[in-house]
Amino acid sequence: MAVNRQKPQNELIFHSDRGVQYASVGYREALAEYNITQSMSRKGDPYDNAVAENFFSCLKCELVHHKHYKTRAEAQADIFAYIETYYNSVRPQSVLNWLSPLAYEHLLSVYAAKVA
């Protein structure tokens, strides 16, 4: 979803935890198809990808652990809605000076336009 919407440039790095889904052949092939470099934290060291670890922790604590999904499609739709309508656009992030990712991205684009 993000690749289609954002149209990222080269040298994109995808950070994740060490979940089996991210190590699967299909997932790794999908990353390679879009020329995305994968980055995982080392076993027992969550600090390599602290931001990614924090995201997955929030996703699980704020959404997934409170639900019992009947189908994979139901889970995917709910997670998509959480990411797109709450996490990216509303939820403040301490690492982004308490702005949402969308607000921070907008601030960066305004700054870039002024400097250019």
How is this structure best described in words?
By secondary structure, this protein is mainly alpha-helical. Helix content is 53%, strand content 9%. A two-stranded parallel sheet has the order 1-2. The chain has six helices and two strands, in the order αβααβααα. The protein has helices at residues 2-6, 20-23, 25-33, 50-62, 72-87, 101-115; strands spanning 12-16, 36-40.
Quaternary class: single chain
Q: Give a quick account of the main beta sheet: strands, pairing sense, barrel closure.
A: 2 strands, parallel
The amount of helix comes to 40-55%
Radius of gyration: 16 Å
Q: Which secondary-structure class do the elements indicate?
A: mainly alpha
Q: Whole-Å distance between the termini? A: 29 Å
Low-confidence stretches: none
Mean pLDDT: 87
User: How much beta, percentage-wise?
Assistant: 5-15%
Count of helical segments? Answer: 6
Q: List the helices and strands in order.
A: HEHHEHHH
Kindly state the number of beta strands.
Answer: 2
What shape does the CA trace take? globular
Strand order of the largest sheet: 1-2
